[in-house]
Amino acid sequence: MNPHSWFPTSPCGDGCLSGHEPSVSRPLRWLRLLALVLVVLLALLSVPLLVVVGRRAREVAARVVFRLVLVAVGVRLRVSGAAGLATRGRGVLVVHNHVSWLDIVAVSAVRPMRALAKSEIARWPVLGWLVSAGGSVYVDRAGLRSLPATVARLAEVLRGGSAVTVTPEGTTWCGLTHGRFRPAAFQAAIDGGVPVLPVALRFRLRAGEATTAPAFIGADTIVDSVRRVVALRGLALEVHVLDEIAPGRAADRRELAALAEAAVDTVLAPAPARHPVRSELDVAG
C-alpha cells in the first residue's frame, strides 16, 4: 500500500518482462558476478587513497569504477552528445528517465556526479555504497513533509557548482515507455539559477531491438535485477545527452518539467530503431 496519494507509482510489473532474450552460459553468469564483487572490493580499497587526492582525481577514479561495473556485468555503454556533460564550474540539474539500477551507473560512467536518490538506495548492496560515497542527496518518498527541505538542500548543492542527477518520474518504468516528469525537483534548478540537462536512456540487445529485461520494476529486488542483467547476451545501454534548457526559459517548475520530458520523448517516443546509435563512447562488456 502506498503511504500517500502522491507516492510515485508505475504500471510496469512482471508482465513487462518477456523472458525470451538471448542469454549467456551459467559459468559466464557466475564469472560476471565474481567480477562485480571484485570491482566493489577494488572501490573499497581505494577509499583511503581518495581522501588525500584532489577532486579531479576522485572523479577519474569514480568514472573508472562505474565503467568497470558495466564491464563486469556485460553491459556495453553507448553515448551520444557526451560533450553536454563535460562543462565544469557551474551547477546543472541532469534529469533522465528511470528504468534500472544501471541508470545512475551509466550516467556516472560518463561523468561522475551527485544524485538525488530515494532513501532506500542507501541500504542497497554495492550500488548503495557507491551512490552514498558520491555525495548523494536522499529523498524520503513516503514523507511529503520532508520534500521542501530536500528541494532546498538540492538547490544549495546546485548553487555550489555541483552537477546532480535526478529521476523525475520518482520510480522505475520498463523502458518501452516512461512516466510523467514530476515538477518538484525542477524547483531546485529554478531556485539555484542553473540549467537543466535532459538525458534519455534506452536498453537494446545486439541486433538493435529494445529490451525490458534490465528493468527494476514490480516486486523485483536488486538481486533479481542483477541476476537478469548478468544473464543477458549483447546488452547495450544507450545514453543520449540532449540540449540544455537554460535558466529562465520556463515560467515555472511545471513548464520546466514538461520541456525536459518533451526532450526525452524525442528519443524514446519513436518506434525502436533496428540498429544501435553511432556512439562517441563505447565501453565493451
| Amino-to-carboxy terminus distance | 39 Å
With helices defined by DSSP (H or I, 4 residues minimum), what is the helix count? 8
H-E string: HHEEHEHEHEHEHEHE
What's the main sheet like?
8 strands, mixed
Please list the strands of the largest sheet in the order they lie side by side: 4-3-5-2-6-7-1-8
Q: State the helical fraction.
A: 25-40%
Cα-atom radius of gyration: 18 Å
Provide the structure class. Answer: alpha/beta
Q: In terms of per-residue confidence, which ranges show pLDDT below 50 for 5 or more consecutive residues?
A: 1-6, 271-285
What does this structure look like?
The chain has 285 residues and is α/β, with parallel strands linked by helices. It has helices at 26-52, 55-72, 102-110, 127-133, 147-159, 184-192, 222-231, 253-268, and strands spanning 75-80, 92-96, 114-118, 137-139, 163-166, 196-204, 235-241, 281-283. Helix 1 (26-52) packs antiparallel against helix 2 (55-72), helix 2 packs across helix 3 (102-110) and helix 6 (184-192) packs across helix 8 (253-268). The longest helix has 27 residues, at 26-52. The termini are far apart.
